[in-house]
């Protein structure tokens, strides 16, 4: 697409749009929710299906290293989140990984009863906490603060602080270092959900010292719908924690088929059951795109894109209000604008080939992903947004009808 407003030439070595299979005529600003398909993934997946599964059958577990995928791919993710090798394992959904981290955290602080989170956290994290509290039935409680003052609510009654680093609605960033320090000073365990951070900005989990981090791989990392989640555990704790979800593949000797559980050595103990080999294969292939990505440069490019987006939208669509922090250092890799008719506007945008998404009650959300979005794309997306808002083409019953789930 061509943009109507001047743009710098896209010389970014990070930009590799040709390596994605993006539909023609689409500007994709929703890679913060579901990353697009890397071009080489279908062929790799086809090989896994036809050659590995088709030909090797059950032998595939040994011949193709299927059983090691959760740990091996975990090491690839570790590099991207600044964690040590051997501290990350893949599997299950992020909701399950939240449960694992939280249950281990509560067991580490048996004398305390409070889980602290914030009211902007993604619902599943809060629901999983509620479910665990009910399951334990030992008088735990979930305390929610406003995102801005969660740090002031940390005290020595808190067992675990559980937060999502980048707010899924506004993109607001928590100060990871300050909050982790405060949690530790109060004797609490720190859990970070990196759903909107992994592949979006540089992280230094090894330096941070938080006990647990969890995240998903279907957003910025392009692992595909339903791609497995990850959990990272601080190295000194890995062999000390007790996995509450004590599945056989987290056992010390799964193929000894012992009648009683013994936790595996190392991060393997955070595995639960059979790895989803096809999803793992898709993710493994997708991660090839990340091998040479410098996360600091990625962050700089993401800020350039999102700053350009904000200044274009504010100049050309004055009826939209910025709902994300204005300071780029206080934002993740997404930007939200507020409008009472944001839902209909987003449907009109999507109908015109610009895909973002909507979060109730009034947020239009856009993700910035420098591997396949250029500054020209961002300006072209605003061209469409400007036309839609100027002509009020969104003001139609088909766009107002709330039929979509994402
Ligand atoms: C912060 C956060 N946690 C968890 C999830 C979802 O977890 P799951 O992969 O289990 O659906 C999402 C998004 O879906 C999210 O944004
Ligand atoms: N995980 C999702 C899904 O299975 C279907 C639709 C959307 C999602 C999402 O990832 C939502 C996302 N976490 C959000 O930030 O809103």
From TrEMBL:
Pyridoxal 5'-phosphate binds at residues 94-95, 122-125, 164, 193, 196, 218, 248, 274. Transmembrane segments: none annotated. InterPro entries: Kynureninase, PyrdxlP-dep_Trfase, PyrdxlP-dep_Trfase_major, PyrdxlP-dep_Trfase_small. Its cofactor is pyridoxal 5'-phosphate. Pathway: Cofactor biosynthesis; NAD(+) biosynthesis; quinolinate from L-kynurenine: step 2/3; Amino-acid degradation; L-kynurenine degradation; L-alanine and anthranilate from L-kynurenine: step 1/1. Keywords: Hydrolase, Pyridine nucleotide biosynthesis, Pyridoxal phosphate. Its EC number is 3.7.1.3. SUPFAM superfamilies: PLP-dependent transferases. Homodimer. Belongs to the kynureninase family. This is Kynureninase. The lineage of its organism: Bacteria, Pseudomonadati, Pseudomonadota, Alphaproteobacteria, Rhodobacterales.
């Amino acid at each position: 697409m061509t943009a109507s407003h001047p743009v710098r030439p896209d010389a970014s070595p990070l930009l590799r749009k040709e390596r994605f299979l993006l539909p023609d005529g689409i500007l994709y600003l929703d890679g913060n929710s579901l990353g697009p398909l890397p071009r080489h993934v279908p062929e790799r997946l086809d090989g896994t299906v036809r050659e590995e599964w088709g030909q090797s059958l059950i032998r595939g577990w040994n011949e193709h290293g299927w059983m090691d995928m959760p740990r091996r791919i975990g090491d690839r993710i570790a590099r991207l989140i600044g964690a040590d090798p051997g501290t990350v394992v893949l599997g299950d959904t992020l909701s399950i990984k939240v449960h694992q981290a939280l249950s281990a955290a509560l067991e580490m602080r048996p004398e305390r009863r409070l889980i602290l989170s914030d009211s902007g956290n993604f619902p599943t994290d809060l629901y999983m906490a509620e479910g665990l509290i009910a399951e334990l039935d030992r008088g735990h409680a979930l305390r929610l603060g406003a995102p801005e003052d969660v740090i002031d609510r940390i005290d020595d009654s808190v067992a675990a602080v559980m937060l999502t680093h980048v707010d899924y609605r506004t993109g607001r960033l928590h100060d990871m270092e300050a909050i982790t320090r405060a949690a530790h000073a109060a004797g609490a365990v720190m859990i970070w959900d990196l759903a909107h951070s992994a592949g979006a900005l540089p992280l230094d989990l090894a330096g941070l010292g938080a006990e647990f981090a969890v995240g998903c791989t279907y957003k910025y990392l392009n692992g595909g719908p339903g791609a497995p989640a990850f959990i990272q555990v601080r190295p000194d704790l890995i062999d000390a924690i007790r996995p509450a979800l004590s599945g056989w593949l987290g056992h010390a000797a799964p193929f000894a088929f012992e009648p009683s559980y013994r936790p595996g050595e190392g991060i393997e103990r955070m595995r639960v059951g059979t790895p989803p080999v096809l999803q793992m294969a898709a993710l493994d292939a997708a991660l090839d795109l990340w091998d040479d990505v410098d996360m600091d440069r990625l962050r700089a490019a993401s800020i350039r894109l999102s700053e350009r987006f904000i200044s274009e939208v504010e100049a050309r669509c004055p009826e939209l209000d910025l709902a994300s922090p204005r300071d780029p250092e206080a934002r993740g890799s997404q930007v939200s604008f507020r409008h009472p008719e944001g839902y209909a506007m987003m449907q009109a945008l999507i109908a015109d080939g610009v895909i973002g998404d909507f979060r109730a009650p009034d947020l239009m959300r856009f993700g910035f992903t420098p591997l396949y979005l250029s500054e020209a794309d961002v300006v072209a997306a605003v061209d469409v947004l400007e036309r839609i808002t100027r002509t009020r083409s969104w003001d139609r019953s088909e766009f107002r009808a709330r039929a979509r789930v994402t």
